[in-house]
Amino acid sequence: MNKLSAKTRITLTAPFTVWMAVFVVVPIGLVLFYALTDASGSFTLQNLSSIWAYRKTYVLSLELAFVATVLCLLLAYPLAYSISKMKARRQQTMVLLVMLPMWMNFLIRTYAWMTILEDTGLINTFLKSFLSLFGFQFQGFSMINTNGAIILGMVYNFLPYMILPIYTVLTKIDGSVIEAAKDLGADGFNIFTRVILPQSVPGIISGITMVFVPAVSTFIISKLLGGGMTFLIGDIIENYFLGNTGEVNYNVGAALSLVLMVLILISMGIMNRFDGEKDPKGGAPV
Amino acid sequence: MKTLSKVYNFLVFVFLYAPIVVMIVYSFNGIKSRSVFSGFSLQWYQELFRDSVIMKSLYTSLLIAIIAAVVSTVIGTLAAVGINASKGLAKKAYLAVNSIPMVNPEIVTAVSMMILFVFIITRINMFEMGFGTLLAAHITFCIPYVVLEVLPKIRGMDSNIYNAALDLGCPPAKAFLKVVVPEIKPGIVTGFIMAFTLSLDDFIISYFNSGSSVQTLSVTIFSMTKKPYSPKINALSTLLFAAVLIPLIIINLKQDKGMQKKKKERKQG
Asked: Using CA atoms, how far apart are residues A157 and A108, in angstroms rounded to an integer?
């Protein structure tokens, strides 16, 4: 299949090339164009400089996404590890159980957390009635509309994206390497930190990207669980394009999107450096 | 250590499934409350089927998902064959463009296409944001997944079979359909299913590119979350979940039976 003539190759890829050029490359070019021009179409840097006003929003988005990503990693690793140690048939079932919630609409799952976290929601109702049995007057926690609720929403929605790549990498580790480490006298802790963990880095990195990118750019989770009180960068972009609560301005919106894109590219560049920093001899860095 | 890890796994699964269980239970609630449960009832399911907005958007979502999956599977499969055969810079360029919609945050992909559509509409006033723009946007974000599913299958294929077919006088197009396609069919099927489910589940791309005349199910659900609470949304999500769960269980049971059969045959043989 790899000896096709140039003409055949170009014919086969032609629909792809045309489609992707029109709907992917040109739109990215338009984002750049809109970000650098004003409403009349003449060049300006004002859109980019007006973004300075949103520096706190960018920092907050990065912060919340960062915390959610770390929590996902801490929650996912032990689970992925223990699944990878199960019998093959059971592994399949567990992976299916991890994936199943992702097939329920993302909005509905987030909406369900509103039901649970609300001031009159399930947790508070339960605690109130439970504590009143003992004669306590309980006011209830305020959980919804906090940054904590937003982080919870992110962790909940993106946790499977962290579990699955780590699990895949862990199943691929050659068991004989672990046995060799044991034979050479390594204890459980050393086997984990110096054999298993270094070998699972590629899975961890793809997990981190798969959680961080949607978390940092979300506008649904902040809307539903932040109660419209917390604005993340996704909310600001949405507003500039659809104008639900403010003026529509594609130019500023494009500039915001451009900066978000660049920020994510930088974060991913940093992440991939970790992936490349392996000892050339193949051993784990000590 | 073993019990500890079992308890841990259990707790993570409780976390993953708690909201789903809550949604399902409250879909059968006799009253319109999301904290008090009182009496079993199917009234929200009845209301759901009577809601023409929801039913219409479900139809739109299915229609878009089917067309987007078919078109993206055809474009993606042809492209994967071509990309696999190309070399050097051309191949790198194809793969780079293919990865843009997957690497970019969804909201950026969504607004970039929205800018394109608005840009064209304001210049030539020939169409509106609606079914067409929605479909084009869905096809766009589905193509890369098809390409990535099909590409490894072609790489792993023995190219001699295709050449043999040509040597035996088979025209290239026929050889492609009769020889290549059956070989890479698993990749094509997975790509198609992925495209279909991604399209059906998508919210962000649809939200920015559907205009005001057409709504996908996700967009309708979103507008429902902004209105006062109605358990209809629970009924809808329960049905959607069942629609996924039931085929999965059937496939699993079939596989189980197949495996047992094979084991028996092996024992007897």
From this structure: 11
Looking at A174-178, A185-189, A269-273, which range is the least confident one?
A269-273
Residue range(s) defining the domain that contains residue B90: 56-228
Q: How far is CA B54 from CA A6, B32, B135, in A?
A: 49, 19, 19
Number of domains in chain A: 1
Question: Is B65 within a domain?
Answer: yes
Which residues of chain B from 79 to 118 reach within 8 Å of chain A, CB to CB? 79, 81-86, 94, 97-98, 100-101, 103-108, 111-116, 118
A88: tokens are 């093959």
CATH of the domain at B69: 1.10.3720.10
User: How much is the ipTM here?
Assistant: 0.89
Are residues B112 and A1, on separate chains, in Cβ contact within 8 Å? no
Q: Cα–chain-centroid distance for residue A241?
A: 23
Of B100, B114, B162, the CB nearest to A241: B114
Q: In this structure, is residue A210 part of a structural domain?
A: yes
Say if residues A121 and B35 touch (Cβ distance below 8 Å). Answer: yes
Does residue A109 lie in a domain region?
yes
Examine residue A178 and state whether it is found in any structural domain, yes or no.
yes
Best CA proximity match to A218, nearest among A52, A107, A102: A107
Return the residue of B nearest to A113 by Cα: B19
DSSP state of B33: -
Residue A261 maps to which CATH number? 1.10.3720.10
Instruction: Please indicate, yes or no, if residue B47 is contained in any of the structural domains.
Output: no
Angle at B95 between CA B89 and CA B99, to 5 degrees: 140
pTM: 0.89
Closest CA to A207 of A128, A280, A268: A268
Mutate to test the interface with B, among A107, A116, A218 (most CBs of B within 10 A): A107
Is the residue at A41 inside a domain? Answer: no
Cβ proximity of A169 and A200 under 8 Å? yes
SS3 for B230-245, per residue?
A: CCHHHHHHHHHHHHHH
B265 belongs to a structural domain: no
Tell me the residue range of the domain where A235 lies: 61-276
| B91 domain-assigned | yes
pLDDT tens-digit map of B194-244: 899 899 989 999 999 998 889 999 999 999 988 888 889 889 989 988 888
> Which ranges of chain B would DSSP assign to H, the alpha helix?
2-27, 43-50, 52-85, 88-103, 106-123, 131-155, 159-167, 172-175, 181-201, 204-209, 217-226, 232-268
The residue type at A25: V
CA distance B143 to B145: 6
Contacts of B29 (CB under 8 A, 6+ apart): B37, B38, B39, B41, B44, B231, B234
Interface of A with B in 115-174 (CB under 8 A): 115-116, 118, 120-122, 125, 156, 159-160
B206 in contact with A at a CB cutoff of 8 Å? no
> Which residues of chain B lie closer than 8 angstroms to A79, CB-CB?
8-9, 12
Q: Is B223 on the interface with A (CB under 8 A)?
A: no
